[in-house]
Amino acid sequence: MGDEGYNVDAVHMAIVLADYGVLSDSTWVGQKFGVMDAFAEASSIIGQYGSLYHRHGDLLMSLEYYVQAAAAVGGGQLSWSGRGNIDQQRQRSSMLKQLLTELLSRDGGIDILLGPRGTGEEGQLGRFLTDEKTRQQFLLEAARQYQDAGLYDKVIFSFFLLYSDMNKLFALTCVVRHKT
């Protein structure tokens, strides 16, 4: 994947420019509705490059580019420290959860994000969603998206990760099977 030449350089330049806040997040006079700002453009470039790794099954490398894409749409490095504006932080959080959900659905995604035992302590998810309640909320939202998409095996497994109590899991499994 390193044979793309200038495309690789463009991705890494986009990461640096977004991280250091060189890109302008303000709108210019006459900007048309629906036109992406510089942060969104950089994020799109970075995310597309990360999706190449995703398609080739290198989920760990894909994760790193996806995180950079989310940071870029959130205004760069400032969005991680809480110094970015509220809208940018919301965009970063939303995009990050969307991309993490995409990774979680892939074979091997659970091992990378939640660790080999699926508990979350050893996985990469804790780097980005630091408290347990946020991680549980993320898994619940992911399960809802999987259910909406008809991926019932992913729903059951997501709930299994959420609830260690087998009685709750059994009840949820019955509900999911009833809907199919």
UniProtKB/TrEMBL annotation:
Subcellular location: Nucleus envelope; Nucleus, Nuclear pore complex
Alphabetical keyword list: Membrane, mRNA transport, Nuclear pore complex, Nucleus, Protein transport, Translocation, Transport
An annotated GO BP: mRNA transport
GO molecular function annotations of the record: structural constituent of nuclear pore
Nucleus found in the keyword field: yes
InterPro entries (alphabetical): Nucleoporin_int_Nup93/Nic96
Domain of life: Eukaryota
GO cellular component, one term: nuclear pore
Family indicated by similarity: Belongs to the nucleoporin interacting component (NIC) family.
The protein's name: Nuclear pore protein
Organism: Solanum tuberosum (Potato)
